[in-house]
Specification:
Phosphorylase Kinase, domain 1; 3 domains; 7-stranded mixed β-sheet; Secreted protein
Length: 434
């Protein structure tokens, strides 16, 4: 009798466990068929969704778009509800789960820049590449598309509050010329907070170069070019763009003052560590023209203050995070001149990946390829032999473009140049001396 009872109890526990949703299989590979148990209703409210390294409690489906499925979940560790964004598709519009995975990655890539400029967006609490985003739930009442459609039915006093909140969003976003995947259904209004939030985005945001640069708010943005713009929308659009122009003009004046202050500080510093400290303090909310002039000043006047062959990944990262977005032309100049300062393979790969992300000026590509060839042996000699280094070198040997045949010949002899792994005594001595 006891054995039968234990068997029933085991079977019951197994069925309870199996009702949970595991996003990763036993081989730690993402389960592309996860949506089946959600959309069929098999996964019930109160059951668990197992992420990587943690679990959340499923509550309900919040919605779905062309590329993602959004669930409301509860995180017991944080003690709050969150939105779990999962890759999905829309067969009617020819989107599949791989499009969803790309969008998850693009959303994460575009997050930090928007957060740094203090745009009202949901915080990302957890991210897994090509798998999911765990973000704040933004309770909202309607999106901008609904507001434009139904504005005539909204009482004037309430409408004025909603418009003022939209003007505030225009001020906050004024420095942007484009935001990835920005459209009227992504901008939502919360009556409780009297505030507009950008609910979703992609990557590839573009800063306005000048006060007169194009804005986020266009006739196409309001109508998607599918219908004529209404008189109300036209008036609202004009008001939004006037506000954006005013904010950009103010920002341009502040940028001019700030740039002169920074250039003066830098002109008095000869030590590269002091230069890094100045860049570390630069705020991120500026027009593109500010960063272009800042980059030009760095390349022309301060890069030569950095010691040859000693620039490491951490320092490169700090520089690129605070010098702002580069155009391909200025980044080509930066990459060309910084190569002689790079210390090891880790630092080289950081700048190499940036070259592929940002793109390079075509006229300078051959010059940069030659500079890589001139410096790669020295960079390898400063790199400790390891499985990770070997894997990186193999990948570089398979690349083309910037990796010339001369560079590949040197990479083929990498074992002759790599430094041997440090002994325990050497590691301990290095720690004690640092």
């Amino acid at each position: 009798m006891m054995i039968r009872f234990l068997f029933i109890l085991f079977t019951f526990n197994l069925s309870v466990w199996s009702a949970d949703l595991h996003l990763f299989n036993s081989d730690d590979v993402f389960n592309d068929n996860f949506a089946q148990s959600i959309l069929s209703g098999e996964l019930k409210a109160g059951e668990s969704i197992h992420l990587r390294g943690k679990s959340v409690i499923y509550k309900e489906v919040l919605g779905s778009g062309n590329t993602t499925l959004i669930l409301k979940v509860h995180d017991n560790e944080m003690g709050q509800d969150l939105a779990l964004r999962l890759p999905h598709g829309n067969q009617e519009k020819n989107y599949n789960i791989h499009d969803g995975k790309r969008f998850i990655n693009h959303s994460f890539a575009g997050f930090s820049e928007l957060e740094e400029t203090k745009l009202p967006i949901p915080m990302i609490h957890s991210y897994e590449d090509s798998s999911y985003l765990l973000v704040d739930v933004i309770e909202n009442d309607f999106d901008l598309k609904d507001f434009l459609t139904n504005n005539e039915s909204i009482p004037d006093v309430e409408k004025a509050h909603i418009e003022e909140a939209l003007f505030d969003f225009a001020k906050q976003s004024a420095i942007y010329q484009t935001i990835g995947d920005f459209h009227v259904e992504q901008l939502v209004y919360s009556k409780a907070k009297d505030k507009w939030f950008l609910l979703d985005w992609s990557s590839g945001h573009e800063l306005a170069r000048l006060p007169s640069s194009p804005t986020l708010f266009t006739q196409h943005f309001f109508t998607n070019s599918k219908r004529p713009i209404t008189e109300y929308e036209s008036n609202l659009l004009n008001s939004l763009n006037e506000i954006v122009s005013e904010e950009r003009t103010k920002q341009s004046e502040l940028d001019t003052i700030e740039l002169e202050k920074i250039k003066q500080q830098l002109s008095e510093i000869t030590d590269y560590k002091g230069i890094l400290e100045v860049y570390k303090d630069i705020e991120t909310k500026h027009l593109m023209s500010f960063y272009t002039l800042l980059q030009k000043d760095f390349i022309s006047n301060h890069l030569n203050k950095f010691p040859s062959g000693e620039l490491k990944k951490q320092e490169l990262e700090l520089l690129l995070n605070h010098l702002g977005k580069f155009s391909p032309y200025y980044f080509s100049q930066f990459a060309e001149k910084v190569m002689a300062n790079i210390y090891d393979l880790d630092a080289f790969m950081f700048i190499y990946k940036k070259m592929n992300e940002i793109g390079l000026d075509e006229e300078l590509e051959d010059d940069i390829s030659n500079i890589i060839s001139d410096n790669i042996q020295r960079i390898l000699s400063n790199t400790t032999e390891s499985p990770e280094a070997t894997e990186t070198i193999e990948k570089l040997k398979g690349d083309f473009g910037l990796i010339s045949y001369r560079t590949k010949d040197i990479l083929a002899k990498a074992p002759d140049f790599l430094s041997p792994p440090q002994s325990c005594q050497e590691v301990l001595a290095e720690i004690l001396n640092s």
